């Protein structure tokens, strides 16, 4: 259905305003101004804000365990850091940490629910996720190389 608004304009079937030029040809321009929409800058800013929020929230998360035994040279790469640091007895263990035991070295991590993870010599492991509720726990770890022993307590 077509609605005539004046001699030079009419509204077509799809709701767009069309214009008729002097030679009675229809010009397919939409005179309605587009509003809203999301520009690329706003979209990137929003994604960056979400990324920063989650990074900060992970960095302030409570430790999920502590180092209970260290023998030899063991180091850790903490989330958001660029340099490894030697592991010390009693140091907190956080999600995202990457532990590396050198040759003839080993370590033991005791989690908050008394589960134990023993890291063998020449091993590299990353703690991706760890959730503990009561007597149930769930963990996701990535073993880059070497061996580990998990003891459920």
Overview of the molecule:
- With 153 residues, the protein is mainly beta.
- The protein contains one helix and 14 strands.
- The protein has one helix spanning 40-59, and strands at residues 3-4, 9-11, 17-20, 26-27, 65-71, 74-77, 85-86, 92-93, 98-101, 106-111, 116-119, 123-133, 136-145, 148-151.
- Strands 8-5-10-11-14 form a five-stranded antiparallel beta sheet, with no helix packed on it. The chain has a five-stranded antiparallel beta sheet with strand order 7-6-9-12-13, with no helix packed on it. A four-stranded antiparallel beta sheet has the order 1-2-3-4, with no helix packed on it.
- Residues 1-6 have low confidence and may be disordered.
**Radius of gyration, in angstroms, nearest whole number:** 31 Å
**Stretches where pLDDT falls below 50 for ≥5 residues?**
1-6
Strand order of the largest sheet: 8-5-10-11-14
Principal-axis shape equals elongated
Question: Into which percent range does the helicity of residues fall?
Answer: 10-25%
Task: Report on the biggest sheet.
Answer: 5 strands, antiparallel
Number of helices: 1
Topology as H/E string? EEEEHEEEEEEEEEE
Which structural class matches the secondary elements?
mainly beta
Q: What distance separates the N and C termini?
A: 75 Å
Strand segment count: 14
Strand content: 35-45%
- Indicate the mean pLDDT: 80
